[in-house]
């Protein structure tokens, strides 16, 4: 079984002091919440440590880290001049792959555009049908109002007939 040996990084003094100051501030906050003694002193000590660390870190110089090692992916980047006409097939292969990717992307965009156009047409049809349905429901409501008024008139005449004693 292969066991990888993990290497530990160096302890950075600034990071350690910053963490220590933050811990003192947090414990001071706990003391303050619980109403214990020396909470104010712990806040002053912790925040003073934090202020000193921030002051020191303002003068700290940083090194520029490389985010990616592109020369491992594209060895052509390491040479000062790329010879396109050489027997090296990496560049033509890369350009062919790039061209194929663009062709696929173009086809997918056309397909997506067609789908969006289809959705647009369907939404317009649904909007038209919705407008027609609204109109028909309005007509139905008007007819129901007329029906209800007629029923009220018939009921009032019937009640009048019953009350007349004929």
Task: Tell me about this structure.
The protein is an all-alpha fold and 166 residues long. Among the domains are: 48 residues; 50 residues. The protein is 73% helix and 0% strand. It is built from 4 helices and no strands. Helix 1 runs antiparallel to helix 2. The longest helix has 75 residues. It is flat and about 110 Å long. The mean pLDDT is 83.
Explain briefly what this protein structure is.
With 166 residues, this protein is an all-alpha fold. The chain has helices at residues 13-34, 39-58, 70-73, 90-164.
Helix and strand arrangement:
Elements: H1 13-34, H2 39-58, H3 70-73, H4 90-164
Helix pairs in contact: 1-2
Q: What portion of residues is helical?
A: over 70%
Structural class estimated from helices and strands = mainly alpha
H/E order of the elements? HHHH
Q: Termini distance?
A: 112 Å
